[in-house]
Queue: 4 jobs
Job 1
Amino acid sequence: MKGFITIGLLILSNVFMTLAWYGHLKFKEWKWFEGAGLVAIVFISWGLALFEYFFQVPANRIGFRENGGPFSLMQLKVIQEVITLVVFVGFSLLFFKGESFKWNHAVGFCFLVLAVYFIFKK
C-alpha cells in the first residue's frame, strides 16, 4: 500500500513541478499574465513548485525503506525520473501542439524502463 501511495504522491508532485518549470511558457497566451515580467513569472512558478514539495517530501518519506517504505533511495529516484518524463510528455502533447513524440523519444523511454528494471533487480 505504501508503494501505491508513494507513486500517487510522486505523480501529483510531478504535475506541479511540470507546471512550475514549463507551464509559464504558455502564460503569454493568457490575458492576465501577458504583461507579467520575468520576476513575476519566477515567483508564480516558485509558488507552484511549493505545492510540488507538499507531495514530493511525503512521497519520499513514506516510500523510503528506512522509514518503513518499500523502496531504496536509488529506486525512489528512478521511479521519480520515469514519472517526471511520463508527466512531461503528456503535458507537452496536451499544451504544446507543435511538439511531437518521435521514435527516438520512444527508444529513450525504453532505456528508462530498462533502468527501472535494473535498479529493482536483486
Note: The mean pLDDT is 89.
Job 2
Amino acid sequence: MLVASVPSGHVYVRHLAPEAGSGPRRLPDPKPLGQPADSQVWWPPAMLEPSWVRSHDFDLLHLHFGFDARSPEDLAALVRALRETGRPLVQTVHDLRNPHHEDRTLHDAQLDVLVPAATELVTLTEGAAAEIERRWGRTATVVPHPHVVDLRTMAVAQDVRARRRTDDLRVGLHVKSLRAGMAPMTILPTLVETVAALPGAVLQVDAHHDVMDEDGPRRDNRLATYLRGLEADGLVDLRVHDYFSDAELWAYLSSLDVSVLPYRFGTHSGWLEACRDLGTTVVAPTCGYYADQGPVLSYVHAEDTYDAATLAAAVRAAHAERPRLGASIDERRRQRAEVAAAHDRVYAAALEKVGRRCASA
C-alpha cells in the first residue's frame, strides 16, 4: 500500500509503523518550492495541491498536519481531486481547536470541509471522538498517540530517573515562542508562590530568545520583564535559549520532575506524550482532552476559566506523592503494535469504501 501522508517525516507519523519497520509505504515529503534537496522542511506540503494529487501515484492520502494556511476553498479543491482520481481521504483529527490561532473561525471552517469529506476519520481520544460526533455526526476511530521518544532514549532516561534523589522537585514551565493557546502570565504567580513554599522545590522557566530578547521578533515585554524580576529575586531558574533539537528536548524533559502545560485552549499534546515516555509528571489544564491521553495531574484552565487553587493542589500533590504517571517501554511497544494494526484496518476500510485496490496489488 502506498500512502501519501501529510506529513511523512513527523515523529508521530513515523511511529504509526510497526517497530520492525514493515507496513504501508509512505511517500517522502516533497520539498516545497525554493527548499534545497537536503532540507528537512516539509511545510507548506505540496501533497495538498490538486495538481500533485492528479500527477502522482498513491493509494490513499492521510492528512495529519499542515493545512493551517489553506483556505476552505483550497481544501475543497483537494477533496475534489481525490474523488476524481478515486483515492480515499483519511484524516486524523489532532486539533479540534488550533493552538496557534487566537481566532478559531478559520480552523473550524477548514474542519467543516475535511471532516464531512473524509472517507475515514481517526482521532486520539474518546473525548475528541465524542466532540466529532456532536459537531459533524461522524464516527472517528480512536487510536492512541504512540510514543514520541525513541525507545533507547526512553530506557536510558528511565534508568537515570530511577536512581535520582527523590527529596528535590524541579517544576518546569516552558513558554517556547508563546503560541496563541498559551497563558503563562495567568499561571505563573500561582506557580511561583506554590513552589517557593515546597521544601527542595525549584521552578524552572524556559523561553526562547524571540520572546525574551529586547529585539526579539515575538518579544513580550510584560512576560520578559516579569520573568527577569523573578530571576533577580531568586524565585525562578530562568533559561533563555533557541529552539531545542530533539536530543536537547529529551534531555530537558528528563531533567524535570514535573512539566506544567500553560494552555488555555487546545486538543492533544505530543509534549505530554514525550513526558510520559521520559517519566516526567504532567500537570495539564482541563481544556482539550489532555487527561484522556494518559494519566496527568489536572488543574482548571480554559479560555474563560482559571482556578489557581487547583493548580496549586496539583503541584503540591506532585511534591508529596511523587506519582509515577509515565509509560513503560513494554507498554509503548505493545501500544505501537496496536496503533500500527489499527491503521492497517482503517486504510483497508477506506480503500474498500472507494472500491480501490492497492497500486501494488
Note: The radius of gyration is 21 Å.
Job 3
Amino acid sequence: MASQTNRHIQTGQDGERKAAAFLQQLGYTILQLNYRYKRAEVDIIAQKNNVLVFIEVKTRATNRFGLPEEAVTPKKEELMLSAAEEYIYKTGWQHDIRFDIISITLSTPPVIHHIEDAFH
C-alpha cells in the first residue's frame, strides 16, 4: 500500500512541476508553490499582468478513471477560496484574481489542459 501512496504523491509532484513550467512558458510568474492555510492548499499561485491566479493541479497517469479536472470537488473549491482570501489579506493584493485548474494526463507526450476561470 505504501508504494501505491508514494506513486500517487510522485505523480502529483511531477504534474505540479510540469504545470509550473507550462505557466512560465506562457509568461506567468510563479509566486508560491503548495501554499497552505489551515487545512487548505493551493498548488500554484502565479501572476500574469495584474491578475493573481490560484491554480489547482490535477494529474493522472491515464484517463481510465475519468479526466483529472473532474476530481476538483466543491469542497476543494471552498478550501482554495479560504486560502486565497488569506493570501490576499497577507499580501495586500488589490487587483483581479482568478481560479484555474490545470489538468495533466501523463501520457507520451503529456496532455496539459489549462482551464482558466474554472470557478468563483
Note: Helices lie at 2-25, 74-91.
Job 4
Amino acid sequence: MQLFFHENIQGNSFDLDADESKHLVKVLRKVKGDKVFFTNGKGFLFTCVIIDPNPKKCHLAIQERLFTPEDDFYIHLAICPTKNADRMEWLVEKITEIGVHEITLMQSTNSERGHLKLERLEKKIISACKQSLKTRVPKLNEVRPIRDLLQDKIFDTFERFIAYVDEENDQHLFKKAKPKNSYLVLIGPEGDFSPAELDLAFSNFFLPCSLGKSRLRTETAGLAAVHTLQLVNNE
C-alpha cells in the first residue's frame, strides 16, 4: 500500500492542490477509477477513488474511513539541535518511523545550534509517516530553553528522564521506564548538559538514565531513547 497525506479532508470528497494533483496524475500516472489511500495525520485512513484525474485539481471520493486509536503510551523527546542540520532531519525521520508522539527542540548551555527550519523538519516527518504507513503525525515544537522544560508543570504526570554520560549513571532507560505511561526524555548536545542543568533536573524529579555503555552522538541518543521506550511498551 502507498500512503498519501492531505491535512484537510472533510465530507465525502476532496480536491488536491496543483502540486499534489500533478504528482498523482502525471508522475504516478493514476487514472479515473484508481484506488488510493490517504491520511490526514490525525488517525484516519481514507480509502479513496479518483473521480476526476485533473493534473491541476484532482478530485477524489472517499469510499471508506478507518480510525486508528491513540497509543496507550506517549513518547515526548526533547533534544538539543545538532550543529549539522542534516543530522536532525535524519533523526526526526527515523524516530517518526519507529514511533514518537512529540518532539521538542531544546536550548541548553552547551547547545551547538539555536535554530532550525521547522518547515523542513515537518516535511521529513510527513514523508516518514507515509513511508511507514502511520496515520498520526507527531507534534513538532519550536526551540525551548531547557529551564522552561524542566520546570513546566504540564509534565508532572509524565515519567521524566534525563540521559547523560557518567560512569555512575549506569541504569538503562529500559530498566527504569514503566510500560503504558507518558514519557519525557531529555537529550543534550555533544557537550552534554551542564552541572547546573543536571542539578535543576534532579530538583524537578527528573530521573537520570543511561542509553548504553557507548558514547553516542546526539541524534543517535535520541533514536536510542525512542526505540527503547517502544520496546518497553511492545514486549
Note: The two ends are 27 Å apart (CA to CA).
